[in-house]
């Protein structure tokens, strides 16, 4: 699952309305967005393969069909909710940015679905919710926290690969839209690794230590105060409930029986991914600030 905090438009606030050079993100042609998105998807295989191996997946996810078992209803839900999300993001940030951002979200959710199928489980439905993100349901639940953590990692790993692809496209083309998309992708995937409740980080933390949930709930509480985003309220409530259940009872003890090696694999992958995303978010943000200064000068 991915969750989207409010993201401000990368367009400079003080740029003149009629100056094309002051609106680089809205002036990008559609074919560049599509071509760049396809190139980012092409980089996904290389990035995802190594990181999934690091997480301990013993099967090759690219031989699995992430949409196996999907019927007309499942595809209709996925496509319809994707179109609604695209329209909502386009209204706030313009169509080119919205299209690229939705592509990153789709890649994120497909990463979950690939990992689910790679572990021999079945996906139920894929749905996208404006300004929340997306989610993939499971028809068969994982039997251990280790497998659950691998599924949780699959989405952020794929989303990170898509964001890196967008960043590399910006390096090759100097098209600022792809820098903005990379920054947005790094931020959303990093936020989604917060170890709490319905976010992917909450599933991953269960295989490391359940007490990370308390830290995650504190992060969401601080974010709620800083951002004042009401969409964070249900995440915080679910996080508090998760912490409470971990304190008052040890649920499904066998589910959380994870070997030391498995725990180490998940922990190394998780913290490496968090560090990488935080680093790339800082780098891309600095580049965006430099571009804004250049446009404003």
Task: Write out key terms for the chains shown.
mainly alpha; 2 strands
How would you describe what is shown here?
This protein is globular. The protein has one domain. About 11% of the residues have low confidence. Helix 1 packs parallel to helix 3, helix 3 runs antiparallel to helix 4 and helix 5 runs antiparallel to helix 9. A two-stranded antiparallel ribbon has the order 1-2. It has 297 residues and is mostly helical.
Mean pLDDT, to the nearest integer, reads 79
Helix and strand sequence? HHHEEHHHHHH
Query: What's the number of extended β-strand segments?
Result: 2
In which order are the strands of the major sheet placed? 1-2
Tally of alpha and pi helices: 9
Largest sheet: 2 strands, antiparallel
Helix content: 55-70%
Write down the overall geometry. globular
Structural class designation: mainly alpha
What proportion of the residues form beta strands (DSSP E)? under 5%
How many domains, in number, for the residues? 1
Low-confidence stretches: 4-28, 53-59
What's the N-to-C terminus distance? 40 Å
Radius of gyration: 19 Å
Oligomeric state as shown = single chain
